[in-house]
Structure prediction request, 283 residues.
Amino acid sequence: MRKSVVIRFTMLVLCCGGMWLAFTQAPQPTKLDVVKLTDDLYVIHNHYVPGNTTVLITNEGVVLVDDKFPQDANNIVAEVKKLSTQPIKYVINTHHHGDHTGGNPRLQQLGAQIISTEEARQNMVDGKQPGLTNVTFEHHATVYLGGKKAELYHWGRAHTNGDLVVLFPAQRVLAAGDMFTNGDDVPELIDYSGGGSGKEWTSTLDSALKLDFDRVVPGHGPVTNKQQMQKYRQSTLDLRNRVHEMIVAKKTKADVEKMLRTEFHFADLHIARSLDGLLVEMQ
Ligand SMILES: [Zn+2]
Prediction:
């Protein structure tokens, strides 16, 4: 398959398809690879589905960012055990989608506290998801553990209304969640039903890009750098401008849909989830 086709399929599965897969089909766990970023920071990675898990090792416990699907939880725990004898104390959910929060119940059983934005937690409540977060915050929070820290930021809407990013300042690494996915240059799925916004996505990314970091762990895809995230930010603007100019030119909904499919490679799911919202937002 062409890369874009793979990504298209992937994105189809991961955002709302992910929840469906997670709770109705019980797919097999994905094979996980561990990528070392620094002596104390790792990514448990797999090929696009489910999302990336970032691992901070300290001598007082382990911090995770995102925990994939339920069926991946035990494998995550096994991989972490190879890196540290310390328990997983905190899990930060970048947003509520099931491919980033599915491991919550298992990790809570093992004693972890789950942290998210208040909006992400509310989306989990609305979606009747198990493993609700234990700790929420509004704009900014910091996790201090074993002399290390993870800084959490929530600025506004993007992929959902509850997206947060995690900065590891000493390691100069940002875990971006699905505000930035690496492998395509378009904000693929704007989850309007989860409070997402194609319009605000750009400014939310701008806030994230003001942070001081070199490397980025995207929500999905290989670890990359700040320049790639900057490029992605531009594509969110291109999408906005293109939809807006078509609305101003009084193009039909069908015309906009065709443009999104041809120029931005939207698949059926993305059209279904994002088109109506875009038409309202980009007027
Ligand atoms: Zn997502």
Notes: Residues 158 and 164 are 10 Å apart (CA to CA). The pocket of zinc ion is lined by residues 15, 95, 97, 159, 178 (CB under 6 Å). The longest strand covers residues 33-38. Residues 1-25 have pLDDT under 50 and may be disordered.
